[in-house]
């Protein structure tokens, strides 16, 4: 297993290198440069701008620029954010915990809803309740998260006043105290609900279908024949076989959480990586933009790796070496 | 055991099946209404005495396995009664139903699919014990399970392995150990060797025979292979299209089959001692009719070489034609 993981990690290097080239050229292809928004060309000496461009290396040949960037990058020097004027690593370190917190919370919400609904629907398939759960899920799946987000803010924040609609924490509370954590959960709940609702439908229907599928298997008949109580048959024999496909979802979830965070964080003005990404696109903040894109690509690759490894752990028939 | 005791034990009926019917509804049309029924088992009666083995033979789809499953209530029979030790078990529910499964266990046909791929062999075999005896656990239970595993000819370290790590024959041994775990009185063996190759078949059959003596078991042995049934059974029931055609002792059924269907079946068994001689084979024409729409009268009349006009009108009942030999055929009315 360790050998396999190492081999896969090594295999990521050429892939990441390729992605970095693509990211680099995409950033170059964007119109303008970081100065276009920051410096007023009518008030500033064009020679000064030219001098700054020269100093930052924007006039070097493209391959030299790429080389400078990538050598710094692998040594942990992600550059300095043009917009925020602080190192990108600091910027990411500030925002990362928020995004992680949002992601974990939305996963927990997804799991709670999906397991409750999937197990109910799978145990009594083709009943009214099953059809209702299915219909509800597909409706949730059909609503895009930017619509769901706006509706959630309208109902839960403006009409009912249950949850705040922006920020990640009440800034009046001292960091690290219990109140601070509670305030964080309180602020994160609504965006996490919107983000989590997206994944719930596929989880629920997969779990339901797999439970139905497994309940017709021969080994379930064996379990019944040896006098196993019905609840144990469903919770032990069937569920354990049915969670395999779900476990592999976890890796892909990392990917969809990153994607979802882009939109959800922006709607809820939640200071995470997704919001940072959008603002850095608007500001042509190359260093931040490239760092985040590479980071997201890395997460996608790691997500797939995690899925494969989890598969091996959960299913004893699959042993990776 | 003295002779009289032996006789008494032999005549005591452990299982009695009376007019068992299992019909599966056929749904069709836009609103999925019931438009018919597959009569998989259509009025089957037989009994099994304590300590004996009743073989149930018949071609594919004749309702052998369905009969076995209905007895254990893995399927809910449509009609009829199943008396186990004199008690009708077709109407039992809940805890009483679970209790009956302590005494009746089943060995399944497909050793590849019938074991949970997620469980260690030790868990598979010990689960029935845990289901009924909550107080038995820990080292004591483990020793008991290991004992069972060695008894069926598996190594002790099988306890910690998964089912997929074993061959077909070994898996069937796991299935047998599992069925034995609760020390049942009756074991329904549903084609236990049909998925195995011939050399392994005999090992498993011999194991079943040894275990029968050791654990004082009664078998309902379901198979389609006549030579396997001959090796295993004391008495044999022949099924065709959800009905029992003939029940008799092994010796009489092989020496002198009375029902035309039994005669055809037995004439089809290759006999190594008669190689080179011309065999007289009864070849049946046509296919088995659909159990959804069985023929009127005797279910076999469409293919019977000795069919009479009467056969398509009256359904024959099982009747004792010779001592111990029951036949359902109008030829003997």
Provide key terms for this protein.
heterodimer; A: 321 residues; mainly alpha; MetI-like fold; 77% helix; B: 333 residues; alpha/beta; 4-stranded antiparallel beta sheet; 10 helices; 24% strand; globular
Nutshell version of this structure?
Chain A has 321 residues and is mostly helical.
Structure description:
The complex is a heterodimer of chains A (321) and B (333). Chain A has a domain at 93-274: MetI-like (MetI-like fold). The relative contact order of chain A is 0.14. Chain A has helices at residues 2-29, 34-38, 46-56, 62-74, 88-123, 128-142, 145-159, 178-215, 218-225, 230-267, 273-282, 286-314. Helices cover 77% and strands 0% of the residues of chain A. An 8-stranded mixed β-sheet of chain B has the order 6-7-8-3-9-10-12-11, sandwiched between helices. In chain B, a hairpin with a 2-residue loop joins β9 and β10 (243-249). In chain B, α4 (121-132) crosses α5 (138-151), α4 runs parallel beside α6 (168-180) and α5 packs across α6 (168-180). The longest helix of chain B is centred in the middle third of the chain and has 18 residues, at 198-215. The model of chain B has no long low-confidence stretch (mean pLDDT 88). Chain A binds chain B through residues 217-219, 221-229, 232, 237, 240-241, 315-317, and chain B through 72, 74, 98, 101-102, 105-106, 108, 110, 113-119, 127-128, 131-132, 162, 164, 175, 178-179, 181-182. Chain A: Residues 96-307 form the ABC transmembrane type-1 domain.
What's the helix and strand layout?
The complex is a heterodimer of chains A (about 325) and B (about 325).
Chain A: H1 2-29, H2 34-38, H3 46-56, H4 62-74, H5 88-123, H6 128-142, H7 145-159, H8 178-215, H9 218-225, H10 230-267, H11 273-282, H12 286-314
Chain B: H1 3-11, E1 13-28, E2 33-49, E3 53-57, H2 64-71, E4 79-84, E5 87-88, H3 94-103, E6 104-107, H4 121-132, H5 138-151, H6 168-180, E7 186-190, H7 198-215, E8 218-222, H8 226-232, E9 235-240, E10 243-249, H9 250-255, H10 260-267, E11 319-322, E12 325-327
Parallel strand pairs in B: 3-8, 3-9, 6-7, 7-8
Antiparallel strand pairs in B: 1-2, 1-4, 4-5, 9-10, 10-12, 11-12
Helix pairs in contact in B: 4-5, 4-6, 5-6, 6-7
